[in-house]
Amino acid sequence: MSQIQTIFKNMSWLLISQIVASICGFIWTILMARYLGVTDYGIFGFATSFTAILAITVDLGISTHIVRHISTDYDSAPKYLGNAIPLKIIFSIGCMLISLIILLVMKADEIVITVTLLFTIEIIIKSYINLFNGSFQAFEEGKYQGIGNTILHVILLIFILITIFTDLGIYGIAISYILANLIALIYEYYVLTKNVFKPKFELDNEFCKKITLVSIPFAITGLLYTIYYSIDIVMLTNIVGNYASGIYNAATKLMLVLTLFYTVYTAVIFPVMSRFYKNDESLLLISFEKSIKYLMMIIIPVAVATVLYSLDIIQLIYGHAYDEAASVLSILIWTVCLLFISGAANSLLNASHKEVTVTKIYAIAAVFNIGLNFYMIPFLSYNGAAITTVLSDVLIVVIQSYVIYKLGHRPNRKLYSDLIKIITGSVILGIALYFLHLNMWVALPVGIIIYFTVIYLLRVFDDDDKYVIKEILGKN
Question: pTM above the 0.85 mark?
Answer without folding.
Answer: no
